[in-house]
Every structure is written in structure tokens, then in C-alpha cells.
Amino acid sequence: MAENMDACETVQTWSASFYHSASRKWLYGVLTLTPSAVYFQSDKTEGAADYQIRVEFLSIKTIRKAMSSFLFASITLLIEENQTLWFSSLANRNVTYLILQHFYHAFLCSSHGKSQEDTQDLPVSQPQNKTKLGTDLLRSVYDSQKTLETAAVSLVSQGQQLSSVACVVEDIHEDLSVAERIASGLTSWLGRWKMPKAQKAEELIFVKQNDIADVTDVDVLCSQVMRDKITPRKECVLRVGKEGVTILDLKQKILNYLKWSDVSRIRVISPWEVLLTRFLIGEPDLSFNVICVAMPAVLVKFESFAKSKMEYMSPPAESSVQRATAPSSVPNDSPSPWSSMQSSPDRDSPKHVPTENDVPQIQARAQKDVVSDAEAAELSATLENLKSLALDISTEQDSQLDMIDRVTQSVDRADYRQKELDKKMNKLLK
């Protein structure tokens, strides 16, 4: 549940209806998508109370298409405790589903380090409560993390060596196959045997750093906007380079290509949505509406290649305001997406400067607390990293043990073939 929604957070809004299971009625209102949640606000009607619901991506299990009453196209959100939320009366159910899935999957891929980022967002100017026990625990955890990282690096190096050994053993088997064919031909005296074709040495191609194209590929949702119609939105790949902008399908087939000289305007609607427009005399205007989670990084590329053609619907500085807080179990204080292009001057200003009178109180609280809240949050984030690192090491270790078994069996098989080949050659020499 939330009371206010910051305008800079809104990615898309749709007119929709929500099924309220308690009253068994469909409530009509507005469905809003933010980078980390889905929000529904019912319309204000006489005699009915307003209804608001906020669903964080972290609590969503699946997003599916469904049919309500076997007739109306809907979208369902399966959240914790196997509760299903129904949304219907959408103008285009398929486009809404694509956009929800795009931002939901991107959030799942980037939310693992969220707890650590929230810990780092604490103001630097505020004094941190440090305790002796907390300091000792943090030192021990960081030492363990450093040891695990060193072990992981050594394990990766060992895996590379095992891969090299496996390649050498495969070469030995190929040489043994050639030797066995030659020995079989000599044994039959007049039998035909063929030497393997000599491999022609190919010239090496040296690639310099300047030869690598400076391009950026991102997954986007794109629709073509023309004067009389708008094509359905579909999943594409947006490639931004020094020459221009290329729109490809998921099979890397070029759909449209615009040189920077052909691009007339890049209108930034929001930190996640832009409108690329091409104006030509005597030809209809051509525009592409692009939505992407990684749009802030793409906007940096646009700024470097076509800064004079950029138009912002709202200045980045105005969009850097802090987000409105909402009563939710998931923290919602991450920085604005505009921060990758332009930082707000208010972010660096300390909220509170402690005085000399505050220091004794802080020290007294630190002595009373066994472990401070900041230290507990840092310990939790570091232990999560340790757990992930340990799981990766365990997976890599299992993979290397399997590779060692395969290499051992291959070496035993090569040794047996070598012995059999020695027996044939000894018979021929007698």
C-alpha cells in the first residue's frame, strides 16, 4: 500500500480493473508500473472507499496471461502465500504483459546486491555506532571473505589447467588413431592406408583495440509510430554505435537502421522511454518508441553521439528528487535513474551535522548495544556474499572433480591403446 507515487518513478500507466476478492467486485482504476513494483489506485466514486495496493517485484512469483470468466483477457500476479491478483480491462493485454515481464526479469537479475546498496546509502557525515563485538565480527567475516576469494581464484586457475590437460589428452588420442591406421596398413602389406591430409597453416589475424566496434546492445520493447497507426510493441535489440542506431529482432536480423544524420530528434519521455524521430522532406515522418530498463546507460551514449538532438520532457535535475516513501516491507530508497547522467547537488549535502554534545550520547548508546544496527546490516550483507561465493566454489569444485574423472578415464584408454599398438609393431619387426 502507498499513499503517493513520485512522478519520476512511473514507467507506464494503464486504465485497468482489479478484482477485489473480499467484496467479490471489479474495481476500476489506474495500474502503474515502477522499476520495482506494480501499483493500483481505484477511481474515486461516491459511496465507495478508495482502494490502493502496491505489489513489490520481490514478492511476485510469476506473471501470467489468463482469461476471466472465460471471456475477458486478464493478467494475473502470483504472490507470496499463493495469492493471485487479477487485472483486466486493459487496452492491450499483450503489450502490458510484455512491459511487465521486461521490467520484472530485469529486476530479478539486478536485485541480489540490493541489501548491500541500501547499507551503503547511509549518509557519510552521520557517526556510526561501533561496538567492540561488532568490529571483531566484521573483521572475522571480511578475513573469511578474503580467504574464500583467494581460494576461488586458485580454483579457477586450476580449472583452466585441467581444461588444458584435457585438450592435450584429446590430441594424444588423435595421434594414436593415425598410428593405428598406419600399423593396420603395414600389417596387411598391400592394404591401402592413407596419411591424414596436411593441415594448411592459416595466417594469423591480429585484432587491435581500434578494430573493435564501440557499440552497445540492449534488449528493448519497440513499436513503430507512423502518422496514421502504431505497430504493436515487440521485443527487439537496440544497437547504438558511432555510425548510428540499429533496431534488430531477437534473431539479429536488421529491422531498421538510422544514421545519426538521419535522426532528427531524440525525445526522452522518461528515464526508461525515448522516442526516436526521423523527419524527411516529401516523406512521412518515422518514429520509434523504445522502452528499456537499461535506458539510463543508453542515454549516456545518445548524449555522446547526438547531444544536440536530445530533448527532455522533464530536466534530469528535477527528476532527481527523493522518492516518496511507502509502507512496504521492501526498502524503496535507491537513487533515481537520472543519477547516471547528472547528479543532483542535494545528494551530497549532509542531512544532519552532529555537534559535540551529541558525541557522548552516541558513545553511550554504542556501549549499551552489543552490535549496532549498521553493523548488523553490514554483517548480513557480507554473509550473503559469503554464501553465494561458497555455493559458486562448491559448483566449480564438483565440475572439476567430474573433469578429473573424465581425464583419468581418457588417460587409461590412451595407455591401453598405446600398449596394443606396441604389440603390433613388435610383431612387424620380428
UniProtKB/TrEMBL annotation:
Pfam (any one): GRAM
Region (Disordered): 317-358
PANTHER family reported in the protein's UniProt record: SYNAPTOSOMAL ASSOCIATED PROTEIN (PTHR19305), SYNAPTOSOMAL-ASSOCIATED PROTEIN 47 (PTHR19305:SF1)
All residue ranges annotated as the T-SNARE coiled-coil homology domain in the record: 372-428
Family in the record: Belongs to the SVAP1 family.
Polar residues: bias regions: 317-333
Protein name per its UniProtKB record: Synaptosomal-associated protein 47
Keywords for this protein: Repeat
Biased composition (Low complexity): 335-344
InterPro entries: GRAM, PH-like_dom_sf, T_SNARE_dom
Name of encoding gene: LOC101856492
Keyword Thylakoid set for record: no
Gene3D superfamilies, per the entry: 1.20.5.110, Pleckstrin-homology domain (PH domain)/Phosphotyrosine-binding domain (PTB)
Biased composition (Basic and acidic residues): 345-355
